[in-house]
Amino acid sequence: MSAESVVDYLQRRHDDVMARLDAFLRLPSVSTDPAYAQGMADTRAFLLDWLKGIGLTDVQLLDGGGQPAVYGAWLGAPGAPTIIVYGHYDVQPPDPLALWQSPPFEPTIRDGRLYARGASDVKGSTTIAIETVAAFLAVEGRCPVNIKLFIEGEEETGSPSLHEIVRRYGDLLKADAMISADGGRASPTVPTINVGARGLTKLELVVRTAGKELHSGRYGGSVRNALHELAAIVASLHDAEGAIAVPALMDAVRPLSERDRRDTAALPFDEAAFVADVGGIAAGEPGYSIRERLTLRPAIDVNGMWGGYTGTGSKTVIPDEARAKITIRLAPGQDPDQAGAALKEHILAAARLGVKVGFEAIGGGSPASTLAAEHPLVQAATTVLRRTSGQEPVHVRLGATVPITAIFKETMGLDTLMFGFNLPDEDVHAPNEFFHVPSVALGLRAWPMLLQELARYAPAAFHQQAG
Amino acid sequence: MSAESVVDYLQRRHDDVMARLDAFLRLPSVSTDPAYAQGMADTRAFLLDWLKGIGLTDVQLLDGGGQPAVYGAWLGAPGAPTIIVYGHYDVQPPDPLALWQSPPFEPTIRDGRLYARGASDVKGSTTIAIETVAAFLAVEGRCPVNIKLFIEGEEETGSPSLHEIVRRYGDLLKADAMISADGGRASPTVPTINVGARGLTKLELVVRTAGKELHSGRYGGSVRNALHELAAIVASLHDAEGAIAVPALMDAVRPLSERDRRDTAALPFDEAAFVADVGGIAAGEPGYSIRERLTLRPAIDVNGMWGGYTGTGSKTVIPDEARAKITIRLAPGQDPDQAGAALKEHILAAARLGVKVGFEAIGGGSPASTLAAEHPLVQAATTVLRRTSGQEPVHVRLGATVPITAIFKETMGLDTLMFGFNLPDEDVHAPNEFFHVPSVALGLRAWPMLLQELARYAPAAFHQQAG
Description:
Chains A, B: This is Acetylornithine deacetylase/Succinyl-diaminopimelate desuccinylase. The structure is a homodimer. Chain A is built from 16 helices and 18 strands. The first copy, chain A, is of the alpha+beta class. Chain A is globular.
C-alpha cells in the first residue's frame, strides 16, 4: 500500500473535495444557538451520509445528552494501530452579520481564501481528514491503520456532554492514539509539531477582616479593610516587572533545555505585535522571550476579584470579606499540588496579623502535558513534515491545555497529535473567517502520509510513550 | 418666663408623657415596607392631632413625593431666634420578630427599660421635644423661641424626598438653627456635645491594561493583568500598619489641638471592645487613639473593588479592566478637592508604565463640619449640660456626616445641635430595641432649659457663627 497513489488521487480530485467542503460549509451548524437546531440536524444527516458513502462501518450518532457526535469506523487492519480521527462539525455564531463581506454560510473564494463561518475552525481540516480516509478506501480498498472518525458537535460550546459520550461509548472509542484536525499550524513558513501544553491549578481565596460589613464613617481609620488586605496579598504575588514573586513555586520549575530555547526561537514571532494586537502591556519574567514565558514558564493570574459595594453610585462601607479567583498555568514538570500548596503558603505568610484567609477549591489541577520526542505521533509527524516542507519541524507548545485532548487523555489514556491545517491569521470566531485554499492541497498530501507512517508502529508503542 | 416652672410641670406629668410615648410606639411606622402604609398614615394622623392639640399653628403634612413630614409651628416670639426642632416618626422594620422578648409594637417596661421598635430611634427623644414645646405653651402660653417642628417620615430609608421637601417648603422652613432629637448621647456618665463630623470625598478608579479580556493560557505570563495592577495601586494607599501612605494628602491635615486631645480622652472608650464587638482587626495611624483616628484624622477606604470573572467555578481570563470605589473621610480643615487631587496624583504615580488609569466622579465632596466653641448652639448646650449633670461637657465629633444635618446645612444654611437622649447600648435597628426610662425625665429637664438658653441670642448670632 502506498500513500503516493492516494495523494495523487486526492490532487486529481481537488475540485470534488472543494465541492464537498462547500456543501459542508453551507450548513449553518451553530451549536450554541437553538435557532440553528435544524442546521445542526441537517449537518449530522450530511455527515452520516458522507461517512456511509465512503464505506465506513458502524456509522451512527453518539448521544451524550447534548449535541450528538457523528461516528464511523474502518477496522480492517488487524494488528495495526487504531487511531481516533477527531474533528468537529459545529461552528461559532456568525454575528455580527453586517461585518461579513460575503454571507457566512455562502462559501466564497476571493484571492485564494475560502470565506465562510467554520472554514478555518474546523470544517476545512475536518474535510481533509475525512477525504483522506475516503481516498484510501477508494484507491486501496483499505486504510494503513484502523480508523475511528469522531466528529464532535459541541466544541464551540465547551463540550458539555463529551464526558458523558466517552462514558457511554467508551468501548466503541477504544483506540491507541488520536489525531485531531483541530489545532492548526503555528506558522505559514515553519512546520510545527505541538508537543504539549501548560498545566493548570485553580483556587479561590477568601479574605475576612471582620464579622460584618462596617460603616466607613464609624470605623474608617481604625480597622482593617478586607479589600486593602486582599490587594496587599495580590500585589505580593508578582514583582514590579510582572514576574512571579513566590520563590517556593518557582524553585520547582525546571530550567529550559537547549532544545526548548532553540525550538522557541525558531518560530518567527513578533513580540511587539503580539502584545499590541490586543492593546496589551508587555510584562513578565525577565530573561525569557514571550513565547518561552507563554509555553515553558508558569504564570499566576487573578482571573476575578471582588468585594464590597459594586453597584452604581457609592456606599460607604468597609468590606469584611473579599475574594479572588486565582489560576496558575504550570510549566512542564511542575506538580499541580505542589504549586498550589506553595501559592497558599505564600498567601498565608503575606496576610497581616489577624486577617483570616481561606481557600476554596474550584476544580482539580492538571499537570503540563508533554509528548516525548520519541513518541510515535511525534516521530510520524516529523517524517511527514520533513518530506512535505523540506524543513526540520519545530516543536511548539501551547500556553493552555486544549479541553478535548485533556478529556481523551484523562478518560481514555489517549495522546493526541494536533494535525490541523488552519493558520493563525484566519479570523477564527470573527467575521470574514476564511481558510487559505492552498492549505487544502497541503493537508491532502500530509494526511495520507501521516496515516501511512503511523502504520509502522505497533499499537503498544503509542501507550508506552505516553507522556 | 422661666424654664423651671415648665420643668416642674413636665416632671409632675411624667405619667402622661409616658402614656403618649406608649401610644406613639404602638403605631407601626415602618417606612421602608409598603405593608406598613396604614401604620405610616395612622402615625401621621396621630402627630397632626397631637401638634394641633398642643396649640401649634400651620399644622400640615409636607409632601415631597415620598413619605410626608409632619409640620407645626409656634411663631409668637418676634425678635427671638427661630429653631427647627427635628425628629422622625418612622422606624426600622422589626424583623426578625422571633428574637423580640415582647412584641415590637407593644411597648413594655422591664428593669427600667422601655422596649419597643423606635423607642430609642427616635420616638423617645422626639416625644421629649414635642412635650417640651407643649409644656411651654401650657404653662407659659408661649415659648422662649420661635419653634418649627419638623418630624420626618423617611429617615430610616435615607430621606429620599427630603431635598424635594426642602425645595417645595423652603419659605416655611426658614429658621436660624436646628435642634435634632436624633443623634444621642455618647456616654451615660459624661455629658457630650457633638461639634462636628468628618467630611467625605469619593471617586471611582478604573484601571485598564488591554483592549479586551485575554485568555490566560494564551497570554498568561506575558502581559499586565488589570487586577494585579489595581491591587498594586490599592496596596500603595496604606502602609503595613494601615496608616495612609499618601503624603500630599496627609500634609494638608492640621495637627490635633490640646482641646482635641483632651476632649477625645475625656470620654470613656474601650478600644479593644470597640474593635472586638464587630470581630474586627485594629489598624491605623500610630500615635493616635482610635477615637482620634475616627473623628479627627482622615481615612481612605476602598468600599468596593471588582474585575474579571466573579461567578461560580472558574474562567481563565486575564481581565483588561478593574475598578475600585474609594472614599476619603476628611479631617477638620481638609479641602475635599485638594484631598481628591492628592489621591488621584498618588494613584497616577503608583500606576505602572502603560497602565491606563481613569477616574469617575460618584458625587461631590463635602468638607468636615465644625461648630465653633463660641457658637450659640454649643454655648447654650454647655450651660444646660453643666447644670443638669454638674460636669463640664465634653466636645465630641462624629466619624461620618449625618445626612439630615448635611442637607439642612447645605440647602438652608442651618447649623444643627444634636440633643437626643438615647444612649449607645439601646440596640437600635436590632431586636429588643429599648430606651432607658430615666432618659425621659432627663430630657424633659434639659430641653426646656435649652430653649430658654437659646432665647438669649439674637437670631443673627446663629448665622455669624456658622462653621
